[in-house]
Structures are given as structure tokens and as C-alpha cells.
Amino acid sequence: MIAALDLATGRSHYRIRDRKRWRGFLAFLNTLRRRWPGEKLYVILTPTSYPHKHPEALAWCTANRVDLVFLPTYASWLNWIEAEFAAVRYFALNGTDHRSHAKQDITIGDYIRWCNRRARPKSGFAINSKSTIRITRSRLHERH
Fold it and tell me: Is the pTM of this model over 0.90?
């Protein structure tokens, strides 16, 4: 599954594919670009996935005002969508015995659509927490 979380609405946008390849990633970015045609997009990613770093995908992002922001290694907890992925695992996959990938995909889709109908904007994450770390763009680049 490849997914994006719109923080302004709290809604998830996703695609399920058999394999994780750069062309699938690029096709997903194209759907995001069509959804928000006039805006610069910031896509938060973990640094370990090759499809996100393929030269053609990077060139397309540069040409289409899509900024890929790679989190530091072992800092996936900074990406809000990770909590959404955990919820998908818990509510749609744990304790199930799907007879096929197609049935599993339907269950995941049903859960995400259910969540999207109840979505609220994501804001104010850990605003008063002493453990909140402010990572600026320059600090992100220092770690790579």
C-alpha cells in the first residue's frame, strides 16, 4: 500500500499494488498532483525506500513542484501517517484470515473509507509535550 495523508482534512489517499516500484510511486504522485493542481506538495517519506529515490521520480518531482522530505533514519514516528498505518493493521488486518489478497485489499479499503468519512484536520500534535522536537529543514539535511 502507498498512501498520503492530507493534514488539512485528515483524509487518507491510497493505492494498493502487488509490488513497490518507482513507476507506481510516480503514478501515485500524479494522482496527488491532479488533486491539488496549483499547490506545492510536500511529501514526507522514510529514507529507506528505493522507489522514492529513483532518478526519474526525483526529476518529475522537481518539474512538478513536489518536494520530497526524507525523515532521518529511525524517525518514522515523526510521520503522522505512521499512526494511520498502525490503525489499518490493528482494525483491518490483525486477527483476520483473508482467503486472498483481493479480499484483504477490500477490507483495507473499507476501513480507510470509514475513517475518511469521519476525518478531521490534523493539527496541534504534542504542542505542550516536552519531548516534541522541532526539526527544521536544515536539520533534516544535516542527517543525510
Answer: no
pLDDT digits over 33-62, tens only?
Answer: 999 998 999 998 877 777 888 999 999 999
**What is the radius of gyration, based on Cα positions, of the chain?**
16
Query: In what helix (H) or strand (E) does residue 41 lie, and over which residues does it extend?
Result: strand 41-45
- Interatomic CA distance for residues 13 and 34, integer angstroms: 12
Three-state SS for 63? Answer: helix
Q: Which CATH code of 1.10.3470, 3.40.50, 3.30.420, 2.40.160 fits the domain covering 2-142?
A: 3.30.420
Q: Would you tell me how many other CB atoms lie within 10 Å of the CB of residue 16?
A: 16
What mean pLDDT is predicted for residues 93-120?
89
φ and ψ at residue 97, rounded to 5 degrees: -140, 70
